[in-house]
Structure of Flp pilus assembly protein TadG:
Amino acid sequence: MPDLLSAWRTRRDATARPERKGFLQHLARRFSKARSGQVAIIFALMVVPMLYAAGSAVDYGRRNAAKAQLDAAVDAAVLGVITQKTNVMTSDMLASARTQFMADAAKLGGVTITSFVALPLPGVTQVGLTASYTATVRTTLGSMMNVTTMNISGQSGSVRNVAQYIDFYLLLDNSPSMGLAATATDISNMQRVAGGCAFACHLLNSNGTENTNDNYNIAKRNNIKLRIQVLRDSVSNLVDSAKSSMNLTQQFRMEMWTFSDIQTRLIQLTPSLDQVKTASNQIDLAYSYQDQRDSQTAYERAIAKMTTTIPASGNGVTAQTPIRFLFFVTDGVQDTPIDGTMSNQNAGFKINNNRFISAISPSTCQAMKNNNIKIGIIYTQYLPLYNNDFYNANVKPFENNIGPMLKSCATDGLYFPVTTDGDINQAMQQLFSAALASVRITN
């Protein structure tokens, strides 16, 4: 009896719980035994929409994956153009965007690009590009419902600020007064080794050879740094800063002059900043004259020369229309030969028929300003010599006007005074940064 009862229970369980042999197999047997065929018909009718739903899910997944890849491709095409070092959006650049996008799109199976449009965005202070595409994705199971393709589209855009082309003209005072020792410590050391003189006068022998016993060479032998040396180093560092700041190919050009009573162009305007850096090694102190006359700082000659040399400033958008700067470094006192009528004669003193000493006249700079040339000035503050009768008689009366006059000559925000213990190099870096900032604000 136990064996018969166990067998009966086994048969009962197999009938009552068909899932043990598989629910689908159980349904299949029932469909095959159904005499009316109604269940089979219902099942057949349900299979079609079920398959279509499953196919649609697959096709929509393929569509979304294709769109994500095409969106990434159009982004890459736009960025490939907008990051180029130029302010001008050319037809070749637009064609390049299309070529890049189509090449990426060709890697996607079952995708057909129906359109691609790239257009520059209008603007003066910005460069921009927008691009859009449309495409179709071939379906798989969706084709059974006569839906052979699915449409997709996308767009991308990017803008950046215009980077201005700038020409920098450097006008550097190398008159004998720039032979002043650079710091208070250097001045003290210079006076100790040069019999009380703080200036490293640079002299020639009567036969025109170098006087190796002048104060200039004494300063060299004693490792005393002079203002002219600091100026030379600051120009070299300025070139490095300009090179690292460029966002466009050959964005910055430079030209460099030194002046005393004569003016020397060390290098013509060039986009090769490495050549400018090499030329900066030529910045050196002018020789003092054997007769010890001091009229060797001629502002009006130098500024007049730069006014005729520097063209009117442009808007900086193209290399042909650069913004133009004059960087003017000086100790602020002109001691100049008289060339006809000196401007602002009441601001200084006529020492004799061929010598005039004064602060700069702001009117000297006006012609350049009228041409939209921006003037940056570093004032290496003039050393007062109150134990000197000539200074007390001819410089002290206007010494409080030296800085304000130079500031009036400079463009607003581009004036940097440097004290005796100040850092000319730091002032040059600040001037460069302020110059670039003034361009961005103006435009």
In short: Residues 1-12, 14-21 have pLDDT under 50 and may be disordered.
